[in-house]
Write a structure and sequence with these properties.
heterodimer, A: 314 residues, alpha/beta, Rossmann fold, 2 domains, nine-stranded mixed beta sheet, five-stranded parallel beta sheet, elongated, B: 260 residues
Chain lengths: 314, 260
Amino acid sequence: MNILVIIEHKNGVMHRMSKEAIAGAQKIGGNITALVIGENSDSVADELSSFQIEKTLLVTNEKVTSYNVDGYKEIILQVVKVVNPEFIITGHTYQARDFMPRLSASLDIPFIPDLVSVENSSYIKQIMNSKLNASISSSNGPVLISFQSASFSEENISKGSSSLEKFEVTLDASNIRSTVDEPFQESASEVDLESAELIVSVGRGIEKEENTSIAFDLAQVLGAEVSASRPVVDAGWLPSSRQVGSSGSTVSPKLYFSLGVSGAIQHVVGMKGSKNILAINKDPDAPIFEIADYAVVGDLLDIIPKLIEKLKDL
Amino acid sequence: MIINQKYMKIAVLVKQVIGSESALEISSDQKWIDESNATFVMNPPDNYAIEEAMQIKEKLGDGEVVIVSMGPQRVQKVIREGLSKGADRGIHIETQESKNIDPLEVAKNICNSIEQENFDLILSGLQSDDTGMGQTGVLIGELLNMSTATLAIETEIDQETIKVKRELESGWFQWVTLDSPASVSIQSGINQPRYPSLKGIMGAKKKEIKVIAASIEDSKQNLDKIFVPQKSKETEVIDTDVDASVDRIVDILRSEIKAF
């Protein structure tokens, strides 16, 4: 059985969820081909060559030097003709959400997205705002699937060696009907949440903007970064570069220490891969406690200042 | 001066979903929710798509906004809600089934019903709160040979171009310029959705909703079962006084997590 995994990368670095997609593909089992599109991808191809997969295909084309939905669709269609995959797999990233449906409609095969696991031929996906799970099957033929963040762990990737091949494509410029500008950040900031070992995260339960200083004080004592949930960013208390969740960063630190974060699914998908989750919330029924290792029920405005004092004395 | 004026025909795809406050009882065949006690609402992200369509029409000075929804009879309620916010007319693709899990089948049905309309722009919410497939707008774009973009957090539309600011991950954004016609999914938070006015509600009653029967041929994906997820983690609950909580947290940080 042939599996095609489409790799996402930026500045020469492979997307963490692409590695998780490789781990997921290995679990399904088959002849895995990884596809890397675009320039500045040598280090990505290098890393893939150490995985136990069949091969990596590298496509470079002057018409698609960076991500473009039309260009990606055309390139992947040409690769699919040659590889003939039963599964086309990606991480459920914003980029995958952009191009996978185009492939689905073009190939007339289903795209079953945001899976938390695959069991035999059943695809398990959260529904109803993650209150319930659904088991979905496909009647026959190939499928496109994407994995939710942290559904598989890159630590479980089987290592080995694989070959690298250049794959030539011919693109008709008239098929590329959108032009992209350079990506940009709105708030210039050096925050790098995705590589932080320790994160203190602020939720709406912090109550007001001036209280966010408590989180920064705690972060300083621990040597942690500060992140936030979307409501805190929308309120303007912290910049969007600190946002964790489906519209912000996806993190998996050693410690995710959340202060007054309720745990809406949009936030949880961005942090549930954390090794340890320590959550403080006044509400004993807060959904964050469902995924927490340690659930502290109480008022963070009482607990955190005392905790900071204690930590300083150690 | 009416130089900037352009007539733009916009479709907004909306879905009626079970509300977040609704009871969620699994039906006896375990394939869906028991809808007899459920309450239904407009899929929340779709409100932003309707608002964006209204603002584009108002900015251009002329155009038509058509609310399109697929589902059983009850979905006319959300079409009417769109009309009460100022949309011009509705198209209801009527199914017998309460749910349809296969986005490709949904997209093909919607295409069949709207292809003759030749919309300049199709807007949709980023995903539905029930099944969360997040693809119908893009599928339709591909099937109707339109350009597509997803997760738009700003639009800039004039007589020449359709430009959208896409939200990327980790606080990054990107402007994309699309050939017309285009199908664009809208990120929640792009605008402040309006409430219907009393006049709007009264006016909506007279607006046309065209009903077209759906034809579901072969579903390529099937929902076999829904179930309550198993909790995968052991959680230690610390529910005590402040000092004892602080002591326990210090202990966890130092001895168990080894955060320092």
